[in-house]
């Protein structure tokens, strides 16, 4: 069991306030270097320090210890033992990098287990050479092929399929003749010079289980189900399905297939796919029959689900652990069809269904699909791989907001992406930020983890209350997976309707579940249950959203539901196809039930009887009246979603914001008027502080009314006890009932009204303190190869590419094989020399020079060779320091010669010391340390590349009373406030106000610690595309107008003067 306490009669106060490890996140722990057991064991403690409940051992780019080898498992077992001692969980991950299935290429060394695909090719087609390799299972071409059939294909003048013939032999006249052949994947460096696994073949997946899961069970099986709760599978997929651009194109199409596909297809549908293959790719005139294409898509999805998700899920159940993880391409109808068919059916046997949420996107469909499966299959929770690809600048307020809305949709198990073992080489660009010790804020992350752990203690109890089911329209999308010219508009229409309906329901505060037709077809109908049963759930109303086709099994269930008085609502139009063949069966059912226009207003009106929660929002202080004068106040919330759960006789309600404020610095507070169907006594569970407090409620016509004040990063967890407030003893919850109807803003229920206060600007800091040394980034240099002529200054990662191209080495920006695969590689045979001209406005007796593997380099400073003597490290142990004597005022010359081979990492370098740094164009200049740091961007105050934290210290003269502080404009992870040397806690959420407690009349010192990040020292400082949201490795290597040699630095610091005010007891 994942959550042991969820079946206790009530949520204990002690558990809520101090949740155990099971309720806490467990980040990906990137094993990305040569493993050192002692260092790994030492790092285990950081997870506990950060408030995590454990870690996922995740092999990533840079692993230099044999995957699944003896030394590897020595490290795994040592970390698992240390986790046990610390009360943490060790979670497993099933692959070297991703996607899951090849076991780092071990499985696919045997070609019978490699992925294969069908190629539909015009006879005589001249194939082009492959481009660069991608980190995915897209088809990799080879000459390992097997002929399947020839086809004569005749199109009409409009491009519709007029006729076709499957041929045994190639005719003499090759005009309009196509060949189908099976092709086995070629080698690719991403799979360590092997290939991806055949996820349509249960034998291949069984081999993956034997190599990976059985080995883990052999080594750690005694702790399965106790200390080891789950194993994570990442982005399994099929060969991506291609399509033509126009029907007249004469190009190859690649699509998912395997050796016995036609045999199992024939067994399922009674005819040969190969004999009808052109119908998969071309549109038939008349558009009355899409069955061949539909059956093909269905069969791919079924075979993938059975071979991968079902087989591995069953193995996990038999061995006492949960299968978790996520599919590839979960978001859209298009992306799902491309890579796997659909997301819900393959997760049926997942113990903890999961999703991946990258770039801080709002993929409502992705979560709704996984959560629906979890609810229907009665799973304990839902996993999200969260925060990936968000960059160094992603701060605490966004960590909370991103997690909140996902929790409201049903996520209970957070897997933050990611923390690194090392920053060596390419690892430092492996989708930062590092949620771990490489970030200066890591020791404060418990603020985030405590909040979500407390939330999970409530939201893992009982079951979700959901009255509406929605038939998932993915199978209608499959019908139109044809050439773009003839099908794209219909697919876009389905896609847009899919996304609109999700948002209309969620933001209309009507919770719902998706119903997968594939899963529904496997359900045994239970006529004794009320509603529309789907697994453990039952729905009062079922929506059919502009589908083109429904399965006959789905129509049978809908007809039976309607016959017994159930409510079926067709939206837009009734489907005109049954099992992808034209039929009036759905139309007849729609005539007997309800058919509504595809309109937000009409749909929400029709679902009003299913409503359990409604919220009106009234913007308050901070709102620009010129923006609001044309907007009606008190409308239904447009940026809130909720989850309602039944827990015995009680209920839990969680409400969250979803989207970021337009301007994170300038926000407003809101008054929520919450209506809940039924009569309840509400208790506020403050997840940020652990406090529990009963709150006031009013009642009206069978509804409970609650008023709440919130910020734009706010969320609310309420326990709802049956009965009126005046009927429930306050002592029942062990807390004093509040007499106010303000349930809080993170400041104990107080919401200062700034308009009525005498606010003053906080004086400029009288002093500041850097919590680590400042640095100068050395990322551009003159260079030469093997003692040749000096070349003009260039950015160092680009120099690395130039040298690799000249030598025929693979570029590090491509999909390289892991270092562990190439243990016998020869020593470097070449030398790369870099020359940096370091301009300084000051002289210093010494500075520190920082680079990777300086022990292998020759370092010359101002003409003198510097013997390497280790002086510690900068940020990561791989970036070593050595002392350089005598920084001179003027120009200093640094020359570094690096032995160069295939495995050499040529990386940016740094100078560190007691100096300032200024960025002017493409030049970094050493300056004196600033005498003062004022409010404003400190990168413009001679701390251009500083990546650490900073203390601002100032003083204020106050009257006696309660001192409040507001800091609304800042760039950094979060702030800690101290008054007269006493810590007062963190500040990072809107409205950015904090009570510092009662003060006496006189002078008081305020220290504000702003926690920085590494965006200007390790970030993509040459990326000129500010709109880019994909913070992947190649953002450091942009090209064209997306590249800038001039530094593109990010704001850092307290950007405007904070304000303060005093509140006296008499107001």
TrEMBL record:
Gene3D superfamilies: 3.40.50.880. Pfam families: Glyco_hydro_106. Residues 729-752 are annotated as: Disordered. InterPro entries: Class_I_gatase-like, Ulvan_degrading_GH. It comes from the Bacteria. This is Uncharacterized protein. It comes from Candidatus Limivivens merdigallinarum. The lineage of its organism: Bacteria, Bacillati, Bacillota, Clostridia, Lachnospirales.
């Amino acid at each position: 069991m994942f959550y042991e306490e969820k079946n206790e009669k009530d949520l204990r106060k002690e558990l809520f306030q101090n949740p155990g490890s099971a309720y806490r996140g467990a980040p990906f722990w990137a094993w990305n270097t040569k493993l050192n057991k002692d260092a790994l064991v030492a790092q285990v403690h950081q997870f506990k320090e950060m408030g995590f409940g454990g870690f996922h051992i995740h092999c990533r780019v840079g692993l230099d210890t044999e995957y699944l080898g003896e030394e590897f498992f020595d490290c795994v077992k040592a970390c698992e033992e240390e986790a046990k001692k610390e009360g943490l969980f060790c979670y497993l991950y099933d692959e070297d990098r991703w996607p899951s299935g090849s076991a780092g290429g071990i499985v696919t060394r045997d070609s019978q287990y490699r992925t294969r695909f069908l190629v539909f090719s015009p006879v005589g087609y001249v194939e082009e050479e492959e481009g660069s390799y991608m980190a995915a299972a897209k088809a990799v071409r080879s000459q390992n092929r097997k002929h399947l059939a020839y086809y004569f294909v005749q199109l009409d003048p409009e491009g519709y399929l007029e006729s076709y013939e499957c041929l045994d032999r190639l005719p003499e006249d090759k005009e309009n003749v196509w060949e189908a052949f099976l092709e086995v994947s070629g080698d690719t460096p991403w799979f360590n010079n092997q290939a991806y696994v055949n996820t349509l073949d249960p034998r291949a997946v069984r081999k993956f289980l034997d190599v990976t899961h059985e080995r883990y069970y052999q080594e750690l099986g005694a702790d399965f189900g106790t200390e080891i709760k789950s194993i994570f599978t990442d982005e399994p997929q099929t060969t991506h399905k291609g399509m033509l651009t126009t029907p007249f194109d004469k190009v190859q199409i690649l699509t998912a297939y395997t050796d016995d596909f036609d045999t199992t297809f024939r067994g399922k549908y009674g005819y040969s796919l190969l004999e009808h293959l052109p119908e998969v790719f071309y549109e038939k005139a008349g558009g009355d029959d899409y069955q061949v294409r539909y059956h093909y898509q269905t069969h791919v999805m079924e075979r993938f689900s059975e071979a991968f998700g079902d087989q591995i899920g069953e193995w996990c159940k038999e061995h006492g652990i949960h299968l978790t993880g996520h599919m590839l391409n979960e978001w859209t109808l298009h992306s799902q069809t491309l890579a796997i068919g659909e997301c819900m059916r393959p997760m049926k046997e997942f113990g903890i269904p999961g999703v991946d949420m990258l770039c801080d996107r709002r993929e409502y469909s992705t979560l709704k699909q996984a959560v629906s499966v979890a609810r229907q299959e009665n799973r304990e929770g839902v996993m999200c791989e969260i925060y990936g690809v968000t960059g160094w600048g992603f701060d605490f307020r966004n960590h909370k907001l991103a997690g909140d809305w996902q929790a409201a949709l049903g996520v209970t198990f957070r897997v933050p992406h990611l923390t690194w073992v090392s920053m060596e080489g390419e690892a430092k660009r492996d989708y930062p930020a590092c949620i771990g010790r490489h970030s200066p804020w890591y020791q404060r992350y418990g603020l985030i983890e405590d909040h979500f752990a407390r939330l999970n203690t409530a939201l893992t109890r009982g079951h979700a209350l959901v009255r509406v089911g929605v038939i998932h329209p993915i199978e209608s999308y499959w019908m139109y997976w044809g050439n773009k010219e003839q099908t794209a508009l219909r697919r876009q229409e389905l896609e847009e309707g899919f996304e609109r309906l999700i948002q209309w329901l969620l933001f209309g505060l009507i919770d719902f579940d998706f119903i997968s037709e594939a899963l529904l077809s496997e359900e045994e109908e239970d006529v004794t249950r009320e509603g529309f049963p789907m697994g453990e759930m039952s729905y009062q109303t079922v929506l059919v959203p502009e589908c083109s086709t429904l399965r006959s099994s789905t129509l049978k269930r809908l007809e039976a539901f309607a016959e017994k008085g159930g409510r079926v609502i067709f939206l837009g139009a009734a489907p005109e196809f049954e099992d992808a063949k034209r039929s009036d069966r759905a139309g007849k059912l729609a005539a007997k039930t309800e058919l509504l226009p595809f309109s937000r207003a009409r749909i929400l009106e029709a679902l009003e009887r299913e409503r359990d929660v409604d919220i009106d929002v009234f913007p308050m202080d901070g709102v620009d009246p010129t923006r609001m004068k044309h907007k009606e106040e008190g409308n239904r919330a447009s940026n809130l979603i909720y989850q309602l759960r039944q827990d015995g006789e009680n209920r839990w309600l969680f409400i969250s914001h979803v989207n970021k404020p337009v301007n994170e610095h300038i926000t407003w507070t809101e008054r929520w008027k919450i209506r809940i169907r039924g009569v309840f006594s509400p208790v506020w569970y403050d997840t940020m502080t652990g406090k529990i407090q009963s709150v006031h409620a009013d009642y009206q016509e069978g509804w409970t009314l609650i008023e709440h004040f919130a910020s734009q990063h706010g969320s609310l967890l309420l326990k709802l006890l049956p009965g009126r407030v005046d009927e429930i003893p306050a002592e029942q919850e062990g807390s004093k009932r509040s007499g106010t109807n303000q349930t809080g803003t993170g400041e104990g229920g107080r919401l200062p009204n700034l308009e009525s206060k005498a606010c003053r600007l906080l004086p400029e800091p009288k002093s500041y303190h850097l919590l680590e040394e400042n640095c100068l980034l050395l990322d551009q240099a003159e260079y030469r190869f093997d003692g040749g002529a000096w070349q003009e200054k260039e950015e160092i990662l680009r120099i690395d590419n130039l040298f690799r191209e000249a030598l025929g080495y693979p570029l590090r920006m491509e999909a390289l094989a892991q270092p562990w695969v190439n243990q016998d590689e020869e020593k470097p045979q070449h030398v790369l020399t870099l020359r940096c001209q370091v301009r300084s406005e000051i002289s210093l007796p010494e500075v520190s020079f920082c680079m990777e593997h300086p022990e292998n380099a020759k370092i010359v400073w101002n003409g003198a060779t510097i013997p390497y003597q280790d002086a510690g490290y900068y940020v990561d142990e791989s970036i070593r320091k050595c002392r350089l004597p005598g920084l001179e005022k003027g120009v200093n010359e640094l020359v570094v010669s690096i032995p160069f081979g295939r495995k050499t990492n040529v990386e940016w370098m740094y100078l560190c010391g007691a100096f300032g740094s200024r960025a002017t164009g493409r030049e970094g200049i050493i300056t004196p340390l600033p005498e003062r740091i004022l409010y404003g961007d400190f990168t413009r105050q001679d701390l251009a590349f500083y990546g650490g934290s900073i203390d601002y210290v100032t003083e204020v003269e106050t009257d006696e009373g309660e001192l409040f502080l507001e800091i609304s404009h800042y760039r950094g992870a979060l702030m800690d406030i101290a008054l007269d040397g006493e810590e007062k806690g963190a500040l990072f959420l809107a409205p950015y106000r904090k009570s510092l407690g009662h003060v006496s009349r006189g002078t008081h010192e305020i220290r504000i610690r702003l926690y920085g990040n590494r965006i200007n020292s390790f970030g993509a400082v040459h990326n000129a595309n500010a709109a880019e949201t994909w913070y992947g490795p190649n953002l450091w290597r942009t090209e064209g107008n997306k590249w800038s040699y001039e530094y593109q630095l990010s704001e850092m610091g307290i950007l405007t003067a904070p304000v303060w005010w005093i509140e006296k007891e008499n107001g």
